[in-house]
Design a protein that fits this description.
Chain A is mainly alpha-helical. Chain A has 15 helices and no strands. Chain A starts with a helix and ends in a 7-residue tail after the last helix. The relative contact order of chain A is 0.14. By secondary structure, chain B is an alpha+beta fold. In chain B, strands 12, 15, 16, 17, 22, 23, 24 and 25 form an eight-stranded mixed beta sheet that branches. In chain B, β13 and β14 form a beta hairpin. In chain B, 38% of the residues are buried. The chains are: A mainly alpha, B alpha+beta.
Amino acid sequence: MTTYILRRIFYAIPILIGVNLLTFTLFFVVNSADDIARMHLGNKHVKQTDIESWKASHGYDKPLLFNQNAAGINSITDTIFYQKSARLFVFDFGRSDLDRNIGQDIQTRMWPSLAIAAPTLLIGLATNITFALLLTFFRATRLDTAGVFLCVVLMSISGLFYIIGGQYLIGKIFQWVPISGYDSGTDALKFIILPVLIGVVSGIGSGARLYRTLFIEELGKDYIRMARAKGISELRVLFRHVLKNAMIPILTGIVVILPMLFMGSLLMESFFAIPGLGSYTIDAINDQDFATVRAMVFLGAVLYIIGLVLTDISYTFADPRVRLS
Amino acid sequence: MLRFVNLIIGCLLLAACENNAPLNNPYPQNTSVSNTLYSSFSERPKTLDPARSYSSNEYKFIAQIYEPPIQYHYLKRPYTLVPLSSSTMPLVEYLDAQGQLLPSDTPTKSIVQTRYTIEIQKGIQYQPHPAFAPLLTDLNNINVLMDFPEQSTRELTANDYVHQIKRLAHPTLHSPIYSIMGNYIEGLTELRTTLDALKDKTNIDLTQHTLEGAKTVSRYHYQITIKGKYPQFIYWLAMPFFAPMPPEADTFYNQPGMKEKNLTLDWYPIGTGPYYLTENNPNRRMVLQKNPNFHGETYPALSEHSNQALPFIDQVIYVLEKETIPIWNKFLQGYYDASVISSDNFDQAIQMGSTGETELTPIMMEKNIQLKTAVQTSISYMGFNMKDPIVGGYDASHRALRQAISIAIDYEEYIAIFNNGRGISAQGPIPPSIYGHLTGKEGLNKNVYNWENKPVRKHITAAKNLLATAGYPKGINPKTGKPLVLHFDVTGTGPENKARFSWYRKQLQKLNIQLDIRATDYNRFQEKMRKGNAQLFLWGWNADYPDPENFFFLLDGKNGKVAHQGENAANYNSPEFNTLFAAMKNMDNSPKRQAIITQMTTLVQQDAPWVWGYHPKSYTLHHNWLHNIKPNLMANNTLKYQRLDIAQRNQQRKAWNQPMVWPIAFVLLTLVIICVPAWQHYRRKEQQTAL
């Protein structure tokens, strides 16, 4: 397994270089270095000399990808791309164009995102699996039909509606929890309840339907018939045998997103005023802050690769027949 | 199951009764009952450094922390400057080439320099700050400013103001007013050149450099010398750019390791104002605390609260809220003390009275919510690129085309549709409450409106006649034989913008002119404007200071965007206007100045480089427990005047936020109802035989 992991890490390097190059190209197709400077200096009373001065002090006065005036390796290294990207590979995110330490900002902002995303995932997973197993248990009855209908209805509602409706009903009308906000430590609990509840409910429709399909597929297999023939109760069959054997496709969907959890959700964090990472990238794009954008895209790519590796590893635990080589 | 239901309900009620606080209270109970004002902000400030900050969302904070020498009187209108940290208003003296004093009535062209001598109040102390304490050698346990074990203060001196003026030339600070101030303050550009030549620009010790135009005369006196005469300079002295900055701040924040922990002057201000920043997390909340070292300032005269010590409020908590819906709902619950009205909530808050005036809806009145309105000192307009061969030009036919379009675009309708009536159509460039703005028939734009006891837009036939005069009868371009096509350069997409652009298209269809909407991103739009490639465009300006010069300079030829990178986006360049502007800008307010302003206004109304657009009107709501609210569109340091009635707030919050318990019982009961047939089915299935 160690060889496998090392090989995957090795494969990740060209992928990350490619992601960086793509981000760089896309960003500078839309924004020139002058545009970035203007965005940071504002519109009033700004002259071209101010723009040149800002570019020089922020390292945007160099050529983009290739420096014709430099000799040898410097023609590659003395460029905006190299200067802004190379240190990412040792996870030194540097300073943003607003002169903030990006690494420290990420460390500060990841925890509130995680505080929402982790319970949403865990509670949501437990709810979806339980609901799907119940639907499977009551399959081909009116309860199953009603349950599937409910899932379709829940799937058809947009995420924004859940948020606005949840805030209106539970925060404004029932007045059970604050409509929005966040606090540190245990005081955060009352702010987390509503977004987690909304996250769970909004995910039931698609999650439960998918899992129900997986479970029903398992139910038709021989080992289930054997278990029933042995007189095991239906609930035991479902929760002990069906669930365990349907774990591989469930893991595929879950483990890959685990490292991404602290990246946050833009909509949720925006409406609930959660100080997480969800809006960090969007704010950076709006501010034309290339340093932050490239750091966040790089981090996202790294986490995605980690998620894929973890998924592969998790297969070996869920199914002893799988071997990583 | 019933026992479980009872337990849940019991827990909720218990939680509701605990500390007597509503369940949905978003604040800790201890701050809820204290003298704390709650407000929100939607855009995180980029910098809180007074040399760099130049936007309203940043001034909201730093204007409460930093104190320039003078400020705007909170209550007086027209806007009047009064001393703040200075003991008197600056002494203004005119000098000749030899540095000799000139009489105050000396003609502008004879004045070589103007000298401002400012005496500051004695005994003003800075906020508690670690920059005034001995520097630490080990910063390992320091993450935020409050982690420093020792905080101290010192007396404000004149040297601190001079230091801040030098900072405007600092090569890595990129002060937005460096270029404009470089034109006026003696030696500022020379200082910049000197600093630019230094090898290490990040750790510059400004105390080692002198600035000819800013000198300390004594511990409590300093002088600023500017080139020529620039009467508007006094208004700049009321902005945070000219607030004092102790040199200790540079030494403190330049320590190794501070920047890596995001401990910078951008983030942690150091001022003498009524408040100081105790928590800066612009991703969540900003907290201002009453400055224990604040010098005595009293509520201004003209009010029942005159001579009461400021500030009234002990703490202000600003919470980041990116969406308008939560702000509005929390305001209605009493968790924000004041709120602006977004378009989404306008109908809930405001209704039209029987005589057409705006008034609060019964729901707002039931909660005793108060409404404050004010016409903003800004203008939003549609500009013509005067360098364009079709819409530009200064001859009668081109002028007629622009006038025709000005009549056709019905901004009264625009304000009603897109701004919920929040605005007044503009007659010229100067907004109300700025010197030079004329009201009633006197201020009427006769090229677009008729006077019928109020301005009434001319009939569209007048526009059609003008269009024919311009050489486009019935909107037909004689060169092509087809309707005239004009290009409208805009930014922004989305349904709301699309509706706006369609509206503009319909306005020109009245003249059979086809409007080609050229939507692009912000950067490309700015580029078009800089290169003069736009034809029609939307633009706006918010007053820096209450002087007509700050609006007329937007039409001054020397300030053209294409030729001089200035703010004259229309590239209007009328020699007659330029001459009048040069004469007007350095004059003190007088009947003579008013006459020139009227002449300039009439001239630009005729030339019509802008479709004058509208002056937006701000609507602000506040609860009746928040007092001393008076819209002041020039001052940003108004927090210190506001007052809270905490007992009333707590009482009303409690009354408005009683949790509803029955929905829990309802949900649980529904679950029980579902569970019964499920249980029956389960039992049946478990008991059934295989065959």
